[in-house]
Amino acid sequence: MANELILLDTWVSPFGMRVRIALREKGIKFEYKEEDLTNKSDLLLKMNPIHKKIPVLIHNGKPVRESGIIVQYVDEVWHDKAPLLPSEPYPRAQARFWADFVDKKVFDAGRKVWVTKGEEQKSLMEEFIGHLKTLEAELGDEPYFGGEKMGYVDVTMVPIYSWFHAYEVSGNFSFESHCPKLVAWAKRCMQHDSVSKALPDPEKVYEYVLQLRKRLGIE
């Protein structure tokens, strides 16, 4: 079966980064199409008419939407190459639980930090760090959330590392002092080409955040 793969994405999206990491970790070639989210392409609107969001993976003309679903889809289709999810039902369920925690707690709190200021922002930053500490406890002394190898939770979580610098500069603090094991884990993940090629320059992310806050009238 031919595998024509097109990824509709935007460079700064941690959700899109997940898909790029998963595809590259498995050595799968794909065509990347950068989307301007202020002027969405006809292709994006056609392939994701419900949410009109990136990322969308188009596999032989058929769209797969939502980053977590896409990563699982990629893992199932190319299951013989660098599997991301455990083969056994219970560890697989646990991986999905922690990936869901990342989406509903970590990313949600992290997003809210950028659309607030003052005491509200400070409170949300503390909540955000609290969620990271929960993840750090789950990681324990393992090199990866997937154990000895990078897995589904790692792929889900590591994109936010590219945003750490922006949080640190804005909040005048260090993640390494709060979550040293998590930072060490992120640096370990960055040794994978699949990760280092997917994550953008942290300085560019910070510039993007400043522009975003100005656009929202927060700065």
TrEMBL record:
Catalysis performed (reactions): RX + glutathione = an S-substituted glutathione + a halide anion + H(+)
UniProt keyword annotation of GTP-binding present: no
E.C. code: 2.5.1.18
Gene Ontology annotations for the cellular component aspect, listed alphabetically: cytoplasm
PANTHER family, alphabetized: GLUTATHIONE S-TRANSFERASE U19, GLUTATHIONE S-TRANSFERASE, GST, SUPERFAMILY, GST DOMAIN CONTAINING
Family per record: Belongs to the GST superfamily.
The keyword Transferase belongs to this UniProt entry's keyword annotation: yes
Listed name of the protein: glutathione transferase
Region forming the signal peptide: none
Protein species of origin: Linum tenue
Segments forming domain GST N-terminal: 3-82
GO molecular function, one term: glutathione transferase activity
GO term, biological process aspect, one: glutathione metabolic process
PROSITE patterns recorded: GST_CTER, GST_NTER
